Amino acid sequence: MEAAYNFIFEHENDDILENLELLDNIVRRPKTYKERRDYFEEYDDVDFRTRFRLSKESCLDVLQMIEDKLEYPSNRNKSISPINQLLLTLRYYATGSQQITMGDYCGMSKSTSHRIIHRVTVAIASLGRQFIKFPASEEEVKKEQLQFYNIARFPKALGALDCTHIRIRSPGGENGEHFRNRKGYMSINVQAIGNANLEILDLVERWPGSNQDQTIWNGSYRNTIFESGQYGDAFLLADSGYMNRPYIMMPLQNPLTPEERLYNESQIRSRNPIERLFGIWKRRFPVLALGIQVQLKNCLPIIVATAVLHNILIKAKEELPSDDPEIQLPAPWDDLIEQGHISEHRHNDNINRDINPVRRSLINNYFRSLHLQSL
C-alpha cells in the first residue's frame, strides 16, 4: 500500500512541475489603453443628434439624473467618465451593432463596453416611474381626453392600447420556443398605452412573443384598475384584437349606417398615434427593430430605457412654443354625447347586433348627431 501512495505522489509532482513550466512559457499580453475621442466636443449638435439620437442638451439632462450611478470612486486605471459611458450606450441603442464594434468606436474593450452598456441601461431604466406615468388626477385625465378629441372628435379617450414585437435572440432552454411569435422569429410582445402626443403612458415588457395581445392585457395592472372603475367612463382605443369591454372602444367590423362609418373613421384616426409611436420608437432606437443580441435578462432593461429616452425627447419637444391653435371642448362630455337626444330615435336592430352597449350608445347619440350636423 505504501508503495502505491509513493507512486501516485511522484507522478502528481511530475504533473505539477510540467504545468509550472508551461505557465513560465506563457507570454501575457501587455495591457493597452485605446484612444478615447471626445465626441461631445467633436460633433456639432446636428451630427451629435444623428449619431446618438439625443441633442446635447437632452444628453446633459439625462446625465445629470444618472451621473451619481455611473461615477467611479477613483480615476485609477484610466476609468471611463460618466459622459463617455452614456455616449457608448446611446450609440448602441442608435445602431444595434455588436458590443465589440461599440468598444472600438469609443476606445475600450468588448468586455468593458458590455459592462458599461448594461450599467447605464439599468440607470436609465430606473427613471421609468418618473417618465412613464399614467394620468392619475382629474386634470391630467381631462388633458389627455382633450388631446384625443382634437384629433378626430372622439370623446373621453384616455389612451390608445396596442402591442408590438421587439426582436431578440433565441433564449434557448426548455422555454425558448415560447418566445417565437406568429411571424416566426423570437421576440418579446410589449404592450404600451400611448397618448395623442406619442408619449408612452404605460408599458408591459415581460411577455414572450407567442402570447396574444388580449392575454397580456388580462394580466396587466392597468386592466385591474380599469375593471375597478377608477377611471370612471374614460375609454381606451384599441384594434379588433381585444375583447369587448365597456372601457375599450374598438372599430366595428361591418359598419352599415352613416353614424357607424363616422364612428369607425374617428376611432381609427384617434388610435393612429399608438402606431406612429411604435414606428418612431423603433426608428429612433434601431436596436429594438434589428434585434437585441444580449441575454434575455438584459433585454427588458433595454426596452424600458429606450422608452424612457423616447418620453424625454417627446417632453422636450412639447416644451417648445407652438403656433397651432388648440381646439377647446365646446361643452361637457355628457352634453356632447347626449346632444339632440338622438337616443330616442335609435333602432332596435342596431342595438341587438352590438354586444358593447356603451359603444352603441356612443354611436347612436354622439356620432349620429355629428353626422346630422354635417348634412
UniProtKB/TrEMBL annotation:
<keyword id="KW-0540">Nuclease</keyword>
<dbReference type="InterPro" id="IPR045249">
    <property type="entry name" value="HARBI1-like"/>
</dbReference>
<keyword id="KW-0963">Cytoplasm</keyword>
<comment type="similarity">
    <text>Belongs to the HARBI1 family.</text>
</comment>
<protein>
    <recommendedName>
        <fullName>Putative nuclease HARBI1</fullName>
    </recommendedName>
</protein>
<keyword id="KW-0378">Hydrolase</keyword>
<dbReference type="InterPro" id="IPR026103">
    <property type="entry name" value="HARBI1_animal"/>
</dbReference>
<feature type="domain" description="DDE Tnp4">
    <location>
        <begin position="161"/>
        <end position="311"/>
    </location>
</feature>
<keyword id="KW-0539">Nucleus</keyword>
<dbReference type="GO" id="GO:0005634">
    <property type="term" value="C:nucleus"/>
</dbReference>
<dbReference type="GO" id="GO:0046872">
    <property type="term" value="F:metal ion binding"/>
</dbReference>
<keyword id="KW-0479">Metal-binding</keyword>
<dbReference type="GO" id="GO:0016787">
    <property type="term" value="F:hydrolase activity"/>
</dbReference>
<dbReference type="InterPro" id="IPR027806">
    <property type="entry name" value="HARBI1_dom"/>
</dbReference>
<dbReference type="GO" id="GO:0004518">
    <property type="term" value="F:nuclease activity"/>
</dbReference>
<comment type="function">
    <text>Transposase-derived protein that may have nuclease activity. Does not have transposase activity.</text>
</comment>
<dbReference type="GO" id="GO:0005737">
    <property type="term" value="C:cytoplasm"/>
</dbReference>
<dbReference type="Pfam" id="PF13359">
    <property type="entry name" value="DDE_Tnp_4"/>
</dbReference>
